[in-house]
Amino acid sequence: KALTAEEEARRREELKEKLREKLELEKRALKVVERLLDDSVAEDFLVDCAKMITPANYKDTVEERSIAKLCGYPVCPNKLGKIPSQQYKISTKTNKVYDITERKCFCSNFCYKASKAFELQIPKTPLWVRQHESPPQIKLLKQGERGSSGEEVMLSERCLKEEDVENPVESIKDPVLPLVDSHAQNLIQKRITVEKLSSCLRNIVGPLHLTMIDITTDLNNLVRTFRFTNKNIIHKTPEWTLIAVVLLHLLSEVSPLVREALKTSASVEYLNTLMVELGLQEQDFLNLVQLFKSPAH
Ligand SMILES: [Zn+2]
After folding, report:
1. Where in this chain does the entry annotate a coiled-coil region (predicted)?
2. Kind of pairing between the strands at 88-91 and 151-152
């Protein structure tokens, strides 16, 4: 009996020791994160850090750095400039939609990609298990390797194969591609369109003595009827402005408020000036509006 009591005490002491060790490792990880918040961190140090932190620690680091207006990639000394407020970005080069939520934390596509590459190499095992593991072989991305614009949102839809139909459970479990369905794609495209139109209209409504509140609901209802593709949502700013003005005229069909606002001589003059800036004749513009107004028979 005396022996088992002694054993019990020893086991408890071992447990306490393990707990202490675990807390020490967590404390060390937080200290490392603190060091990674310095303006610029040596590459060797960053490589060395990987074994002492978790991927979650690193994510915190990136976030903390970007809040401090520093590029999220610890080895980069650059300050972050004006941070874009939108969540999505269309690349005119690749015609793809990118989620830039994470990309916004970095000064460049390179730093974003390098940081992601580093993050993926941090071991996912708990800190106190790692003593028995060989340290990870970390390789940092080198300057000159291509960067990344952000998480690609629109992934190509996977074609259904015959075996998927025969074996539907298998295909549901298949984790290969996160399927972004066409509904989700459409929502993103709609959101981009509304965002672009709103940013143009915000500048236009003032001189017309309208407010965004006067037009938002009708505009949303109209945009909801559009059929989007990857290509027809990519326009230059002057083109978005023209689209916005045409749509505003279409809204006058359903909104007496907009109709009256567009009739005033000040509005007519303002819109004419705008058309001149866009390099259009008034008649061109009216033709364009008419094109939308008359249903194609
Ligand atoms: Zn950077």
Report:
1. 2-36
2. unpaired
> Could you give the CA distance from residue 109 to residue 95 in angstroms, rounded to a whole number?
17
Please give the distance, rounded to the nearest whole angstrom, from the Cα atom of residue 141 to the centre of ligand 1: 12
Would you state the pLDDT for residue 186? Answer: 78
Q: What's the whole-number average pLDDT of the chain? A: 81
Q: What is the dihedral of CA 67, 107, 146, 87, to 10 degrees?
A: 60
Provide the b/e sequence for 68-81 (b: ≥16 CB within 10 Å). Answer: eebbbbbbbeeebe
pLDDT for 180 equals: 57
Could you give the domains of the chain?
16-152 (1.25.40.820), 182-293 (no CATH)
> Cα of 106 to ligand 1 centre, how many Å?
5
Spacing, Cα 110 to ligand 1 middle (Å): 7
Ligand 1 centroid vs 83 CA: distance in angstroms?
Answer: 13
Q: What is the pLDDT of residue 297?
A: 46
Q: How far is the CA of 109 from the centre of ligand 1 (A)?
A: 8
pLDDT tens, position by position, 273-297: 888 888 888 888 888 888 877 665 4
What would the pLDDT profile of 9-35 be if each residue is shown by its tens digit?
Answer: 898 998 899 889 889 999 999 999 999
Give residue 207 CA to ligand 1 midpoint distance, Å: 41
Closest among 158, 62, 81, 76 to 111, alpha carbons compared: 76
Q: Which residues pair with residue 99 across a beta bridge?
A: 88, 151
Could you tell me the distance, in angstroms and rounded to a whole number, from the CA of residue 236 to the centre of ligand 1?
28
Cα(73) to centroid of ligand 1, in Å? 6
